[in-house]
Amino acid sequence: MTDAFLIALGGVTEPYTLALMALATFAGIVAAAIPGFTITMAIVLTLPLTFAMPPMQGIAVMLSVYVGGLSGGLFSAALLGIPGTPSAVATTFDAFPMARKGQPGRALSLGLFASFVGSLISIVILIVAAPPLALLAVKLGPWEYFALIVFALTIIASLVGDSIIRGLIAGLVGIAIATIGPDPLMARERFTFGYDLLTAGIPFLVVLIGMYAMSQLLSELEPSASSEKAASSALVSGDMRPHLWEVVKSTMMKPFNIVRSSLLGVFIGAVPGAGSSISNLVAYDQAKRASKHPETFGQGEPQGVVASEAGNSSTVGGSLIPLISLGIPGSPADAVLMAAIMVHGISVGPRLILDHPDLVYSMFIAMAVASVFMLVIGVIMMRAFMRLLNVPKYIVVPVVLACCAIGTYTLNNRVSDLYLLAAIGTFGYLMKKLDYPLAPLVLGVVLGPIAETNLRRAFQTSADWTLFFTRPISALLLALAVLSVAYSIYGYIRHRRLVAERTQAQARAFQDGASQE
Question: At what angle do helices 164-178 and 439-461 cross, to 10 degrees?
């Protein structure tokens, strides 16, 4: 094992390999920052370039794209309010308000450092706990998967904003959108209402870009306060290094949030099919629940940025656990990685770490090196990206709109998706104007099909519905879901009561002052 580690270390740290990894990390960041270009698309485009490389070098390059991509969505999420990838949805909740308050450098520094720490924690867990965690994840049946998604859906209760009714309506609309088109098991058309435009369904990426990118672009066309522009511009020319050091100190003084979010990301990543889009939201939700001041989340709360970015970046290590231990890809990006390994004539499965330990060790080392590159390149690129805040809107809006259209079209090469993008974007803009939260809708679109698929699989396996409550892990997850909803409702009522008491106190103070005059 020592010889295998030294071989892997020598192979990854070759100057040419390091240069390729740095370039791949940069490419992953840029690709993920462009709305519509997913991490999986970036890895797929990289795959043909690695065919002529040695296995160790090719895998290191693709992992660099992976690591860079999970942090790249931060830039567009913070500066434009548009999640570049599905794994950056929760990042927009606090990073964008923070940037609007004149702290774009702090928002980016928080996200980059949290991504770096989350990646390192996931690597450590990947090395130490890969076999037991992989065995646990594989033992989960459709009952446990359904219960896990039900628990994840309870996040809607903490993302409802100022109205529970509006938030639940948005979540139900998202679940309804996910049912349009072919059903996930039998591929039969449903809820198309005779429109050929809906025959293939509404892809999640189209919903994500439409809800966040298109609606945000329409909002950007409205007049905005010049003070926000001046405040953000003042930080563009400053030195980001003191800002980053301040973030490092403040984060390390309160490490529980970043560690908890990273552990959640690893566990969710180890569950095949879950992915970083779920861990991003779950980590944010748990940070909000654990906070003494949950009302600050959504208004530029630093711990919200830390939780969301640590959660999605740590998913890389978690998703590699079933891939390395059992040959089961944890996400579409991991499936591409597995294909790259198999192209080089290496079988992926339980004997991978025994037959090719040098390749497995090279994956561990490459992830650590790519995480360092991600932090360094992100800090260097920070000021360049922040100059987007000074670019006139009549330039930014058409360019971003073109990127959204290109990303939507390249997803399935269908012009009909562009019409859906325009319709969903307009719908998202109207929802924002009517004060309906967008996050529950997107969450419903993400989790709805997964919940339906596993529910139907469970009943196809056995008609006994009591298995959801008699299987220990499933029962535990459902119990946690009930507690999660109860806690969210309690917190919402308590928050409303505090707001009412504060308003009454201010009214009494105003009346006392008026009577004294």
Answer: 50
